[in-house]
């Protein structure tokens, strides 16, 4: 099933969850920076708990010392005190809610930021093996779910314990036998409450799973690529049917969750009424036999709700704690993923290298979970590229061209071997100074849903308008941009869908030109373009590569013809190197590739050479 697998996993985890003290301890460290506020919250809780118990005690005084003894002044003064206590307790309650929410929100904001920053440090492989929707769900939903748990478990726990202790203290102080009698019925409602809590929690897990499935479907269907795919295969009705199914299941689960345990609640209600009944019966007997004052019964009955409510909530503590442990476990699982690529320490200014690239005995394998011996995708690659040279990578699909290209900016690190930029081992450089030396034009460039201007600024935030226009002129895209009704302020649409493939390529070239890197990495688009666009792109590319070291995954005839060196890859190995004509003679695979890929571009190499050379000389 697409989507929701993470949630499903979480529900399963919650079912098998146990008290993992390491997780609890680690979760609590998030509160350390807010210890002052947390202490304030505890003090306020203590004050509000005591304030909440006092009215029952005062009621007893009003009845026994005021009403029954005919003391009007006592009744009046105690009534005023009751009102004052209610007012002060109310104010303290507001302060406590505000502070405890502030702490919970602070902790949540910290977690969201920590997760986002941590995920920003991850390599491309991290995203290739995870569902984006699931990561979004962790950063947003899990963290928010924790907030509820934190307030209901941590704060709820302390406030309930305090209320129970203060209430029990007062009860014992008034009459210990009546106190024990009050506690007799407790198991009668605590046990069912616990059961209902468990069922509700399980239903909540299923609801979260359905919500996540719907969220993933929505995000897939509302994105341009997903919408296109659905329309081209005419799967709209099927998608609506699927949505409707999950939507209905969600509705049923939510109804069940609301109604679950209604019989048990009737039972609980009954037990909560039995408590006061027992107190009136036994208390009445004590009063009649003059062993206790009437006010004590009234005080006890009003204290009962302060005892039973918090006890029921405490009964659900275990379920709450277990589900919060499951949530924290999911969050910590992401935080514990160490980035595949570690930052180096040497920093060099951008553009401060000649651009020599040496790839020495490089072997690479993708890390896949659950396999001990990953399959090698690149084996023993040796390549020496001199400053200003252009190397074209060719090879059948899956040969490892993209993988090799991605090793240069350290999107991944090789299992063995070294990559050197000038005399620097690439691992020794900080990632920002390594990547600052190079620009990448991917096959399908990505753009943010923002204006063309802002998308270009992303590459160089300090760029002036002139610099941006100059880069676009060089990339043969300025004319097209100014022809748009809103020019550079045109919003390119999600992923840049408002632009054609060729326009996206040239805009991506402009973006790299802005950075003026010493090294250019290029994955040429495979799509065939008409001659005019082809020529515009060719001109843009020749400007891009002029005086720069370039590694190009070649899909164009003009590229292989002008390359200083063509490297033929097969099954992760370099099987041949040389110029176009040399390879045509000595490499069978190259000949086959040439016939299959390059010659279909309609022009014979010799016819094209003149054109290409003209372009390159410009
Ligand atoms: N993230 C990944 N995890 C695991 N294996 C991967 C990953 N990316 C690529 N591969 C595998 O590595 C091999 C080389 O892939 P790569 O994309 O480098 O080939 P390529 O030569 O660029 O192919 P193409 O020309 O089709 O883009 C393939 O077998 C591919 O399935």
UniProtKB/TrEMBL annotation:
Residue runs in coiled coils: none
Domain named ABC transmembrane type-1: residues: 39-323
Membrane association type: Multi-pass membrane protein
Record bears the keyword Cell membrane: no
Primary location: membrane
A GO MF label: ATP binding
Top-level taxonomic group: Bacteria
Subcellular location(s) of the protein: Cell membrane
Limits of the ABC transporter domain: 357-596
Gene3D superfamilies: ABC transporter type 1, transmembrane domain, P-loop containing nucleotide triphosphate hydrolases
Family annotation (SUPFAM superfamilies): ABC transporter transmembrane region, P-loop containing nucleoside triphosphate hydrolases
InterPro entries per the UniProt record, alphabetical: AAA+_ATPase, ABC1_TM_dom, ABC1_TM_sf, ABC_transporter-like_ATP-bd, ABC_transporter-like_CS, P-loop_NTPase, Type_1_exporter
Keywords of the record: ATP-binding, Membrane, Nucleotide-binding, Transmembrane, Transmembrane helix
Residue ranges crossing the lipid bilayer per the database entry: 39-58, 70-92, 149-172, 263-282
One Pfam family here: ABC_tran
Protein name (Swiss-Prot/TrEMBL): ABC transporter ATP-binding protein/permease
Organism name: Neobacillus pocheonensis
């Amino acid at each position: 099933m697409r989507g929701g697998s993470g949630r499903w996993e979480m529900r399963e985890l919650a079912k098998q969850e146990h008290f993992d003290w390491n997780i609890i301890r680690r979760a609590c460290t998030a509160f350390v920076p807010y210890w002052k506020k947390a202490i304030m919250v505890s003090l306020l809780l203590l004050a509000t708990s005591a304030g909440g118990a006092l009215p029952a005690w005062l009621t007893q005084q009003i009845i026994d010392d005021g009403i029954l003894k005919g003391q009007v002044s006592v009744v009046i003064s105690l009534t005023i005190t009751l009102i004052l206590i209610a007012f002060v307790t109310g104010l303290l309650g507001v302060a406590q809610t505000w502070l405890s929410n502030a702490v919970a929100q602070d902790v949540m904001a910290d977690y969201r930021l920590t997760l986002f920053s941590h995920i920003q440090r991850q390599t491309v492989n991290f995203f290739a093996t995870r569902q984006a929707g699931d990561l979004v769900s962790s950063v947003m939903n899990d963290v928010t779910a924790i907030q509820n748990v934190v307030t209901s478990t941590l704060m709820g726990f302390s406030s309930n314990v305090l209320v129970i202790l203060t209430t029990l203290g007062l009860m014992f102080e008034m009459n210990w036998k009546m106190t024990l009698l009050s506690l007799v019925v407790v198991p009668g409602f605590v046990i069912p409450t616990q059961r209902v809590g468990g069922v509700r929690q399980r239903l909540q897990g299923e609801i979260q799973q359905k919500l996540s499935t719907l969220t993933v479907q929505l995000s897939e269907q509302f994105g341009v690529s997903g919408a296109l795919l659905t329309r081209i295969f005419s799967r709209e009705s099927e998608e609506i049917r699927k949505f409707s199914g999950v939507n209905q299941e969600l509705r049923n689960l939510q109804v069940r969750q609301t109604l679950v345990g209604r019989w048990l609640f009737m039972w609980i209600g009954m037990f909560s009424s039995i408590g006061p009944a027992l107190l009136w019966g036994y208390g009445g007997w004590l009063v009649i036999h003059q062993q206790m004052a009437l006010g004590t019964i009234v005080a006890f009955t009003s204290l009962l709700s302060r005892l039973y409510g918090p006890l029921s909530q405490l009964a659900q503590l275990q379920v709450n704690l277990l589900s919060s442990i499951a949530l924290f476990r999911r969050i910590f699982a992401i935080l514990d993923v160490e980035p595949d690529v570690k930052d180096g320490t040497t920093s060099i200014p951008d553009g401060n290298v000649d651009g020599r690239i040496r790839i020495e005995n490089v072997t690479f394998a993708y890390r896949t979970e659950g396999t001990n011996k990953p399959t090698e995708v690149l084996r023993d690659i040796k390549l020496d590229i001199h400053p200003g040279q252009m190397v074209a990578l060719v090879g059948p699909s899956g040969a490892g061209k993209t993988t090799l290209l991605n090793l240069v900016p350290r999107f991944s690190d090789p299992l063995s071997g070294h990559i050197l930029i000038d005399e620097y081992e690439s691992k020794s450089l900080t990632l920002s100074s390594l990547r600052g030396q190079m620009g990448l034009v991917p096959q399908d460039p990505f753009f943010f849903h923002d204006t063309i201007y802002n998308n270009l600024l992303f590459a160089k935030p300090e760029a002036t308008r002139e610099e941006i226009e100059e880069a676009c002129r060089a990339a043969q895209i300025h004319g097209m941009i100014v022809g748009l009704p809103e020019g550079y302020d045109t919003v390119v649409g999600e992923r840049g869908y408002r632009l054609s493939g060729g326009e996206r390529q040239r805009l991506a070239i402009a973006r790299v030109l802005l950075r003026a890197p010493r090294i250019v990495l290029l994955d040429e688009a495979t799509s065939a373009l008409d001659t005019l666009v082809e020529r515009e792109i060719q001109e843009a590319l020749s400007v891009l590569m002029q005086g720069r070291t370039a590694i190009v995954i070649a899909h164009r005839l003009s590229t292989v013809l002008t390359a200083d060196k063509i490297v033929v890859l097969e099954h992760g190995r370099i099987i041949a190197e040389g110029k176009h004509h040399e390879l045509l003679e000595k490499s069978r695979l190259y000949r086959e590739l040439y016939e299959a890929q390059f010659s279909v571009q309609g022009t014979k190499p010799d016819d094209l050479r003149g054109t290409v050379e003209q372009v390159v000389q410009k």
